[in-house]
Amino acid sequence: MDFVIFILAMGALVVGSDFIVNQSERIALHFNISEFVIGATIIALGTSLPEMAASVSASVSGKPEIALANAIGSNIFNITLVLGVIFIVTKNINPNRDFFAKDTTWALMPIMLFLLMSIDGTISSFDAILLFALMGAYILFLLNDCHNLDENNIEEIKEKDNFKWAKVLLLLFIGFIFVVVGAHFAIESASSIALDFGLSEWVIGIIMISFGTSLPELVISVTAALKGKVDMAIGNVIGSNLANTTLVIGFSAIVKDLPISLVDNVFDIATMVSATILLIYITANKLYSKPAGIALLIMLALFVEHIFRTMGTT
Questions:
Q1: pLDDT tens across 256-308, in order?
Q2: pTM, whole model, 2 decimals?
Q3: What residues form DSSP beta bridges with 219?
Q4: Superfamily of domain 2-313
Q5: CA distance 283 to 290
Q6: Burial (CB count <10 Å: 0-12, 13-18, 19+), residue 61
Q7: Is the Cα dihedral 123, 216, 8, 74 positive or negative?
Q8: N or C of the chain: less Cβ packing under 10 Å?
Q9: What is the SS3 assignment for 63?
């Protein structure tokens, strides 16, 4: 029964986040916000809502391992699975934006900050404030760096969209309800599954919950890439990872200090750092190709194999 509840709860998280992303995008277009800003901020933050809701719920429930494992696992899945699939299924990837010069170093900064904060064994509320400040700095950078959509294009979108505040706010409210309720039941059912199978909450968080909460990034980014919006797809992954490391961990730490052991979880944290460095290498050399996608999926396979091998020894 716990498995059924978990699947339904994860479904509610995905559906709820989809509602929020879609309506947030409509609001952004209504106020003439550019497509790239939408992809790298609003959609990125929106697709990180499941991670945020699940991790904060875990922190409130006194399950800090799930909160941290979810954020770390989601970062790994976003780079290895989401980008890997994008590179494999998309032909002729030629993004207009120079992600190496403008964005990927921003993805590495919060991870380096997270490692420094973890040395003393705790992510505190003060650490959370610093993480929030870093996310705020990135959003300001994006707003200053990019240009608005052509106004004629925006007016055309508005006419087709038939924007109505009542409908948008209602769907936003429904989306938030789905996300909050889904997060609660996902955490409770995952904890029960962990107890039933003798698994640690860290393993449940870093595999089951992080994979489930990464589904919005996978669906939205791949769809955007297939439509030729590669900048939005890659920007969504980078922005989502930044949100995971700053906002997801930050809000969880605001609720309650998060204990973290770099030694006990060295492989998972090292995989997250390695995946981020590989992302920087790919963007620096513009290796947006199928071989790069295969390399990312190989890293994912090694990560998953390690987790399952570890499960067998616990």
A1: 999 999 998 999 999 999 999 999 999 999 999 999 999 999 999 999 999 88
A2: 0.81
A3: none
A4: NCX, central ion-binding region (1.20.1420.30)
A5: 14
A6: middle
A7: negative
A8: N
A9: coil
